[in-house]
């Protein structure tokens, strides 16, 4: 089976992790690796400060906690995303409000976002879905006009740029994931980047159970969201490789584009105006003209030993969120259609041109057979 993703980890990472363990960087925030990784990744992301944490989910939850909002305040989140984005609000006793997706980019629709703002809205979490950068100048302008904080969910967009600036550097904070399938990985792990020194300080305090002096006496309810030193050591090595990994991701996407663009009824990732898409995963949407459902196409690919994954179940359809007191129903037809008809293809940076060609030719062959009805 060709997997949807394989991590790109070499001997250098293994040696760096072993060295960190030998130096005693096992747990806690001791040692050189965590600050080095924080500085390297923040610098790469055009930010002054980095706060390494245990996952992308923890990064989002901690970033929201640092805003110190009141219970039942609302946070706008891109509808088509990993549940972690909405849970960042949920676990802070805030209400996530899903924002309808755009048909072309699959990111949140900036034309309707202001219709969802109420007097209780306090923040926006745009998600740079699959590595496609959101038009952050518009998000920041809307946020400024409505006095909202901005937390970018960059779990899938390391190194993506908009108008020459990296995602994560536009909002008050940017949250990254270093899970195994992300653009760079530390196994599990995450980071919040920011240009605001006070926020960086607060995030560091909250990450580590809000320890102050005297030790063991606490003014604030913190979290244990610490990353280990040996994970950070792996992150430093991955950081040195990130531009090569992104170049390979772009190569994979361009090769798919070349083979798939003439297939009727298969929507491919939209190109970015004035920015860089990093193609975390190469997503496609099966349209009615394709003549076969997404599920059928996925089945046929599985039979040919090609693994794929569906797009995310949108936040307006999540039972866990519908049961939350204060839940507000918002229809997200485009995100629902993406959930029904979208899926992503194997997208590892290590995929050879021959393998991509084999996958693409399989899709071309299936497209030439087909035909049943497609979910609207
Ligand atoms: C958009 C998005 N946000 C948040 C997360 C959560 O990151 P993690 O798995 O590191 O907790 C993920 C991915 O896993 C994601 O894709």
Spans of at least 5 consecutive residues with low confidence: none
Secondary structure tally, helices? 11
- What is the average per-residue confidence, as pLDDT, rounded to a whole number? 96
Specify the structural class: alpha/beta
Coarse shape: globular
Largest sheet report? 7 strands, mixed
Strand content: 5-15%
Strand order of the largest sheet: 1-9-8-5-4-2-3
Rg (C-alpha, Å): 21 Å
DSSP helix fraction: 25-40%
The unique ligands bound to this protein are: pyridoxal-5'-phosphate
State the total count of DSSP E strands: 14
Write a brief caption for the model.
The protein is an alpha/beta fold and 376 residues long.
Walk me through this protein's architecture:
With 376 residues, the protein is of the alpha/beta class. It contains eleven helices and 14 strands. The two termini are 30 Å apart. It binds pyridoxal-5'-phosphate. Pyridoxal-5'-phosphate binds at residues 55-57, 81-82, 84-85, 127, 153, 155-156, 177, 179, 190.
